[in-house]
TrEMBL record:
Pfam families: 7tm_4. The chain crosses the membrane at residues 23-48, 57-76, 96-118, 139-156, 198-219, 240-261, 267-289. It is found in: Cell membrane. PANTHER family: G_PROTEIN_RECEP_F1_2 DOMAIN-CONTAINING PROTEIN, ODORANT RECEPTOR-RELATED. This is Olfactory receptor. InterPro entries: GPCR1_Superfamily_Member, GPCR_Rhodpsn, GPCR_Rhodpsn_7TM, Olfact_rcpt. Keywords: Cell membrane, Disulfide bond, G-protein coupled receptor, Glycoprotein, Membrane, Olfaction, Receptor, Sensory transduction, Transducer, Transmembrane, Transmembrane helix. GO terms for molecular function: G protein-coupled receptor activity; odorant binding; olfactory receptor activity. Its main location: membrane. It comes from the Eukaryota. The keyword Transmembrane helix applies.
Amino acid sequence: MDDTLNVTYLTFGGHVDVDRYRYVYFVIMFTIYILIICSNSVIVYLIWVHPNLHEPMYIFIAALLINSVLFSTTIYPKLLIDFLSDKQSISHQACLVQFHMFYSLAGAEFLLLAAMAYDRYVSICKPLQYPTIMSKTTVSIFLVSAWLLPACQLVLPTAMSAKEKLCRFILNGVFCNNTIYKLQCVISQARFVRDMVILLNVALVPVLFILFTYTRIFVISYRSSKEVRKKAAQTCLPHLIVLINFSCLCAYDVIVVGLEADFPETFRLIMTLQMILYHPLFNPIMYGLKMKEIHKHLKRLFFPAKIK
């Protein structure tokens, strides 16, 4: 606590041998951050410049990749600074901002995936009505809602956390996630119920909607022609794989991190970094390789001499 400025500082206690390997950590994470920005930005650029990719499905993919960059930017700059600092700390107010951004963008990811699932359902199951249903207005509403709804719902718990008295000042992690609650002297039942409602709204309901939608798609596709089944597999499987991957990482953050389990520091660090390291790189790789039109434009961009 800085009494002069009345600012409370928290220390990150999840780093492993940072004094010994600080430059190794910095180079690795900085390289990964640049790769995340470049790989996601390339696909967003391709979707932007090619008119045949100006369709709802690709617009949602672009939004998802932009969300990945924002998600990473919430964590990486501060993490890189900490690697080069003698003390890995953050003010309580800044930690709450990072907490709010982290979960807002995580919630936006689920809602964007839900919008993509609905888009695929209309495209495959109601193709004649697709242009009418998935209009520019509808797409815009989905995009704005995906980013605004989680952010608005998280304003209250973030503001309430700012008023809570702290009894601990060491975070068991390398950035501000739900471990911030363990610093509070009292964790009320009302706070728990409130957080469960938010989790239900921004994660569980979208996931259930996605699973229901894809089940409907695969059932209808199975009864349809081979061409319809192929289209469903090509466009839906990448979305489903991304959903499963992200859901597993979020399950660790919400459930395992919330438990008072005494895991080794190295295991905690590896699992915590999975969400900010693996997933933002997984999205562009998955969509770049599995989405036929995007893959075609990627080949033309990087191997123009081989494309005739």
